[in-house]
Amino acid sequence: MQPGDRVRVDRGDVTNEGVLLPSTTHDHLVVKLDGGYNVGIDRDEADVEVLESGARDVDEGADAGGGEASEITFDGDLPTISLISTGGTIASTVDYRTGAVTAQFDAEDVLRAVPDLAGRANYRGRVVANILSENMEPPIWQELAEAVREEIAAGADGVVVMHGTDTMQYSASALSFMLDSPVPIVFTGSQRSADRPSSDNVMNAVCAVEAAKADHAETLVCMHASQSDDACALHRGTRVRKNHTSRRDAFETVGGAPLGRIDYEAAAEAGADGDAADAAIEWTRDPLPRGEDAGEDGASVDLEPDLDGDVELVKFTPGMDPAAWDYLDSKDGVVIEGTGLGHVHTDLIPRIEALIENGTVVAMTSQCLAGRVCDRVYDTGRDLLDAGVVEAGDTLPGTAKVKLMWALANLSDPAEAMGRDLAGELTEESQPWR
C-alpha cells in the first residue's frame, strides 16, 4: 500500500475507510476519512485492505511538512504587510503520529500554504509564538505588541496576526489597549485546518491581508461572516466574541453589527490594487483613519505594554460556595460576571466590600450577551455600588479583564477608567442588534 491508496482499516470492532496519507513514523498509519477528518492508527493493531490503488495524488513532501523553503519576492509598487504568527489552526499541519493537527508553520510557510496571497503585497514574516491559543498568556501579548510596533516602525503598511481562534478575542483586546497604531492590525485564524475540504484558512487569510492594506487604523478580527464563502466580517477587537465552537462564522460583534464586511470575490480580485481593497469593504461605521506617517520607516507607534497580571475574572452562579472567592483576597483587580443588570447573591456583597476595602478594584459586567449593567435599579445593585463596585457598562467580560490589567498598570485611576471608553470597548448606550 502507498499514500493515495483508498484503504479499509480494521482494528478490533472499529472500521475506518479513507485515503492513506504519508506518515512520518513507521509505527502509525494516517487515514483521511470521507468526512475530511484524519485518524492516526497504530500499525501493529490494524488489518489493512487496499480498496483502490492510487485513488488520490498525494505529495508526500508537502503533506508531511517538507518541501522547498518559502520564497518571498519584493515589488516596489506593492504595499508591505507583516505576517506575524502565534500558531493556531491557520498555521497548523497534520501530526502524522495521531492524525490530528498541530501548530508548526512559521509565517513564511503560510505563504506557501495559501498561494492566493502571492502578488497582493510584499510580505515580512516573523514568529512570536508557536502555540495553540489555549496556551496564550499575557507575557506573549506583550511580546506580540512589541513585535507589531517594530514591524510598523520598520515601514509595514499593515499587520496580519495569525492566531488560534479560542483566545483571539483576548489578544485582540490586549493590543487594542496597548497600541495606538497608525496602520491596520488584523487578527485572523481558521476554524478548520487546511487539510480539511471545508477549511476557511484561504478566505480568511486573503480577506485579512486586503483589510490590512485598506485605509483605516483599526485593530480588527477578520473571520467568516456566514457559513458560506462569500464575505468576512471585520469585528473591532474589543467588541468581538467567539460564540460557536466550530462553525466558520463563530465570531460575532456583541451588541451590534460588525464594524465592516469585506466581500471575498472583490477582495480576491483586488490583488495589488490598494483602491480595490478599499472598494471590497463596506463599513457600517466610520473606522479610525490611517496615520499620516503610515507605511514609512520610523513611523510613530505609541506602545504602553505594561500589564498587571494579578487580575481575575469570576463568574457568579446561583448556589456557589462563597469560599470559592477566597482566592481573590489580595488581588489587584477582579472582574465579576454578574447576572442580568450586574448582580450577585446578597450574601456575597460583604465579601466584595472587604476586597475593595483592601485595595482591590472590582468591576461588574453581565453574563448577558447584549445590554449594559445598571446597578441602580434594584436594591442588590445599589448595595454593590455602595460597596465600591465599578460598573463596566456593556464591556464584554473578557475584554473587561484585559482592560483592567492594562488600566492598573498604566493609569492613575483604573477604577474610573473602567467606566469610560478607551478603545471602542464601551458604548455610550446600548444599541439593538442589527
UniProtKB/TrEMBL annotation:
The keyword Cytoplasm does not apply. Residues 1-51 form the GatD N-terminal domain. The keyword Protein biosynthesis applies. The active site is at 89, 165, 166, 242. Residues 81-263 form the L-asparaginase N-terminal domain. Heterodimer of GatD and GatE. This is Glutamyl-tRNA(Gln) amidotransferase subunit D. It comes from Halorubrum lacusprofundi (strain ATCC 49239 / DSM 5036 / JCM 8891 / ACAM 34).
